[in-house]
């Protein structure tokens, strides 16, 4: 019974809805119906809503959106610079922050400082080693290898600093080095092998490098006194090097002069440096035993002649060029008969030979005091090595000087 009542009520409602829809449809025909329908739709959409439509400012909207977009990125900013901070923490100031420690080696009985790659003192020593201008200003030389370092110490040269990378090489000269450290306060540094190899001018570095002061006049006089006590007196000969451009040849010339020994060696302007590493190795310590005047002009050469022998000084030029020999009436070196109280022997390089300035200097002496000499060679042989030629000439002059007065041969 109850169900039938509900069914009838539901059907009556459906019929009323259909009737209302038909009435709306009929009323919507025409302009007034359209306007009414639009008003009804608007009332249904916004009638029960509190929203208000206002005009939008574009600039304000962009500012709001920008603020919202930047907001969440602030939380991610700390993670971005983490990588560069780790990279910037690697540089070298940490290594150079503290002073290098002094190491006392009981086995060597020496004190030395271990230098690192980034130590400021390392760059200072490197500048001293590499800069010729700075070495010339301080009158210093660089010596490599234990034999040459020992030779310099035995000749009385002052060692400013010694750098080593191999302890076994230092052990071979520890007595001489220890004596220099006690007497002169020489500094000893241990550096990495890679650094010493970079600084060295040799293909195979010996593991030892030292900074010395050049020989002083006092030290050379002391060596001369010791030679005289042993019965060796320097001969009155000055060897003048002209156009010697090869350091090994110049070193060999100085070695020969020290072996004779000559009074001094003059290196004219235009020759290579007698104190560079290759010349020092070629000299085998000759630079430490006799006076060397370097970078001398031809105008200054006359001042190198001893005053007591200025009136009786002979000048000899060694010449291997056939045209110049004919021009200057050269004689066989074995035919030299007149030897002066002092003698200048001028020798030129193998490539450039003797310069015209040398002949001008010989002619300026005057009085027949100058002679051009040559060494006879086999057919087809142009010349000898400059050091070999000098050796023949010097020992012939020594033989003449040592001859008793009045002897013919």
Helix percentage range: 40-55%
Assign an overall shape.
Answer: elongated
Round the mean pLDDT to the nearest integer and report it.
81
Largest sheet: 7 strands, parallel
Count of helical segments? 16
Strand residues, percent: 15-25%
Task: Count the beta strands.
Answer: 13
Specify the structural class.
alpha/beta
Which strand order does the major sheet show? Answer: 9-8-7-12-10-13-11
Which consecutive residue ranges, at least 5 long each, have pLDDT under 50? 86-97
Radius of gyration: 49 Å
The string of secondary-structure elements, in order, is: HHHHEEHHEHEHHEHEHEHEHEEHEEHEH
Distance between the termini: 172 Å
Concise structural overview:
The chain has 409 residues and is an alpha/beta fold.
